[in-house]
Amino acid sequence: MPALAVLAPAALSLPAAPAQAAPAHTTTAQVVAAPVVSEIPPGAGHGRPVGAAVVDLGARGYQEREFLMSGRADTFQKVGVWTSGGQWGARATGTVQDYTTRLLVERPADPARFNGTVVVEWLNVSFGVDIGVEWSQSYEHFARAGYAYVGVTTQKVGADKLRSLDPARYGQVSLASDALSYSIFAQAAEAVRADAAALLGTDGPVKVLAAGHSQSAGRLATFANAIQPIVPAYDGILIHGRGAGAAPIGEGVIALPLTARIRTDSAVPVFQIESETDVRTFADARQADGPRVRTWEVAGTSHADAYGLAQYNAQNARDRAINDGRPISCDRPVNAMTWRYASNAAYHHLDRWVRGLGAPPSGPPISLLLGNIRRDVDGNALGGVRLPDLDAPLAAYAPTNSGGEVTGACLLLGATTPLSSARIRQLYPTQQDYVTAFTRAADRALAAGHLLPADHAEAVARARTTPLP
Question: Alpha/beta hydrolase domain: from which residue to which, for each copy (predicted)?
Answer without folding.
Answer: 41-461
